[in-house]
Structure formats: structure tokens, C-alpha cells
Design brief:
1 helix; alpha+beta; rod-shaped; 31% strand; single chain; eight-stranded antiparallel sheet
Length: 174
């Protein structure tokens, strides 16, 4: 069919074919790059290991812990926008951790609250308090703590991706 067509049509057809080939190569490269990025993301996520920490044993909050020995620290950003403060009070092996009414934190999957002796829950003596109950507002966690450990950090950690979200230093922790 092209043999009997005009030279201009043959040139136009050749240019169109070359353009289509270039476009197809570009699409294939783009798809390949997408697959590689997806595979790398899966590998990175599947290799992320949340901190190895014992779970805190919850205590029914029937009796509030006196705030006289409580310490408070402001949350600071380690990976996500955060506002508010954390207050920790410990008495007779029972801890009460309160987040302030102005507490907010950015969106991410799987935020978990930890207490620790260092600011990284993969080191020190971490205690996994539990999943963050709300991304905004006041909240209280009441749980048992070992009597021989002085916790000096409240950490909000993204367990699925093993990254820090926010932390609060507790100076003079009980």
C-alpha cells in the first residue's frame, strides 16, 4: 500500500512510526521505573521492624494518680508536625500519661506511644504503651511500669515504617 503512495505520505508514515516507537519506549521505561520503585518500596516496608518492647499492662483508671510528682514535656517534631505536651505521673508502679488538650499530630499509619529511657524506642528500655488513641486532643493512658526504670521520653513512633513521628523529653522524670 505504501509502495504506490506519494513520497510525502511515505515520509509522514515513517515519521509517525518513529514517533510511535519513541513513545512506546518511553512508556516502557516509565512502567519499568514504576515497577522498580514499587518493588523497592515493598522491600523497604517489609524490612521495617517495629521496636522490640514489652507491652505495658493497662490499669483501669479508677483512681487518678496525684499530679504532685508529675513531669511535663512539650512534644517536638521528629518527622511529623506536632503540638501539645505530655505529662507523666508514676506512683506505686502505676503510671498515668496524659496528652494535653491542644495535642495534634500529622497523618501516618500505625502511630504507637512509647515510654523510654532514650529518645529512640529501638534502644534503651522501651515500653510500648499502645496505639495512639486520637490524633487530636486530650487523652489518658494508665498502665503498670517497672519500679526500677526511670522513663525520660514519650515517643510517638510509626511502627509500620519504623520511623519517629514526635517526642517529648520529660526532665526530672519520676
Amino acid at each position: 500500500m505504501l509502495a504506490n503512495s506519494s513520497p510525502d505520505r511515505r515520509v509522514a508514515h515513517a515519521q509517525q512510526h518513529a514517533s510511535d516507537s519513541t513513545f512506546n519506549r518511553s512508556v516502557r521505561r516509565s512502567r519499568f521505573a514504576t515497577y522498580v520503585l514499587f518493588a523497592a518500596t515493598l522491600l523497604a516496608c517489609s524490612s521495617a521492624v517495629p521496636p522490640t518492647a514489652p507491652d505495658a499492662v493497662p490499669v483501669t483508671p479508677n483512681t487518678p494518680i496525684p499530679a504532685a510528682g508529675a513531669v511535663t514535656g512539650a512534644f517536638t517534631r521528629t518527622g511529623y508536625a506536632v503540638t501539645g505536651a505530655a505529662t507523666l505521673a508514676i506512683e506505686n508502679g502505676v503510671a498515668q500519661l496524659d496528652f494535653s488538650a491542644d495535642f495534634t499530630i500529622g497523618q501516618t499509619p500505625g502511630p504507637v506511644v512509647y515510654l523510654n529511657t532514650t529518645k529512640n524506642p529501638n534502644t534503651g528500655q522501651p515500653l510500648r504503651i499502645g496505639a495512639l488513641r486520637s490524633r487530636t486532643g486530650a487523652q489518658r493512658y494508665t498502665f503498670q511500669v517497672p519500679s526500677d526504670t526511670r522513663y525520660s521520653w514519650v515517643i510517638i513512633w510509626c511502627d509500620p515504617f519504623n520511623v519517629a513521628m514526635a517526642q517529648a523529653a520529660l526532665p526530672g522524670a519520676p
